[in-house]
Amino acid sequence: MTHVNRPSPAVALRLLLSAVCVLAASCRAEAPAEVQRLKNEALTILKANADKHVAPEEFAACLLKLEKAKALLAAAGDAESMLAQEIDASLALARRSSTPQVAAALEKLRNAGGAAPPPAKTAPPAPAAGKPPAEERPEGDALELLKEGDKLLAAKKYQEAIEPFAASLKLKDTVLAHKRLGKAHYCRAQQLSDELKPRTDAHQAKYKAVYQGAWRTTTTARFFDANDPKLKAWNATLEELRKENDVAQRHYQTAEQEFRAVLKLSPDQKDFDATGYVALCMSARPFFRLTGMQALQDFVKNYAPANDDERLLYEFCKTEIERLKKGG
What we know:
By secondary structure, the protein is an all-alpha fold. It folds into 2 domains: 21-111, no CATH class; 142-325, Alpha Horseshoe (Serine Threonine Protein Phosphatase 5, Tetratricopeptide repeat), CATH 1.25.40. The protein is 71% helix and 3% strand. It has 14 helices and 3 strands. It has helices at 9-21, 25-29, 33-51, 56-75, 82-96, 100-111, 140-154, 158-171, 175-205, 207-213, 229-265, 272-283, 289-302, 308-325, and strands at residues 2-3, 215-217, 221-224. The protein has a 3-stranded mixed beta sheet. Helix 11 (229-265) packs antiparallel against helix 12 (272-283) and helix 12 runs antiparallel to helix 13 (289-302). The radius of gyration is 23 Å and the shape is globular. The two termini are 43 Å apart. Residues 1-31 and 115-135 have low confidence and may be disordered.
């Protein structure tokens, strides 16, 4: 009897289920090969540094690779793609973790003919005309909309809370409105992810039987029937789960954008809640998981909670670091 080589059920399962966690794999496939290589090598060093600090020369090489990748994308006119955003975030985190020893090692690498010099430092852009300063408080209709959103947020109606928070922000651009809108998107992402997990686990548990049932045996051979009705139905459900996961991932992305807006409006671009939630949002997105874990570590290192609410966020970030280290 002739046997056709097929992946084992366990291997095939890991390959298929990885689709549930992928946000936009097609973006990676289109990325320049050299940029992708540089990014992957740099992230390997960042991950090693997250577990245990690497030598200054090795961390300098990581910075150099990210700078080269950023320069290549800039030359190609790409500053907005998912890959460009990931490299920007990784480079920013790597620079924040740099030390004088790393800076000296990086300068030596550049002088030896490494990468193009980093972009010149410029003053931050002035606020757009008419943009309210960060310390302004919502008032009137903008305040009433925030109160409406707060009630929905307290009732865990996160999807419904998004609309009044966004409407308040349109009326008046304030730190508080950005924070509330970011919190609503983050909580909705968490809510969707929590609802999706048991369904994904249950679907995963069915795969072995579906996979085995798709094999066919004839008098001369044994083969895998990719058109098996149960297998096709399983794959269709997998696609639906993937789409639902994409919705959760977009909420994480939007939440991160709102909390970054808080940082831009805050004095010295520092804010306890915004910094913590930016790190959490990054760590929840597959493409940004490593840089997200580094951001979480930087947060717990550089910030100290001043009240019970901040302490809850701080402790949650610490538990996320441990979960990610274990491969969660």
